[in-house]
Amino acid sequence: MSSQSNLLKIWSKCQSLPKGKWLFSKAVCFKAPYFASIKPVVNELKLGYCSATVKNRRAIHNHIGTIHAIAQCNIAELCAGLMVDATVPAKTHRWIPKSMTVNYLAKVDSDMRAVAEIDFPRQWLDKEDLVVPVKMYNSRDELVFTADITMYITAKKR
Description:
By secondary structure, the chain is an alpha+beta fold. It contains three helices and six strands; from the N terminus they run ααββαββββ. Helix content is about 25%, strand content about 35%.
């Protein structure tokens, strides 16, 4: 029996299909519809790591024509959530977002790429606050946003 998460199994299957990343991203947005507002594309997903991109388009702009702060938070939460879901052992643990601290470092006037990454492998505890750092870059590869998203990890009762 494989210990790979269901999410990683779906990711792997989609990668063998034409437009697999797009298809996987659409499936994620079907499961969690709010993320569809930013039209993300998941680029990479593995244990301890997720990256995704969002195109710069008017629908996610603020009043000054740059990408809205909440759109930036959305892509950060998406990457952190997918990475944690792919990484936390679903048979023994569960997780839920608990808090988010963000830093807006520059206006985002281009496509954006978010990366969530934690050290892995690691030991999973009960009633643990896992802080997931997320970094976001513009199309010039400049750091424009950071977030620390705290995920509350608990052991499942047997």
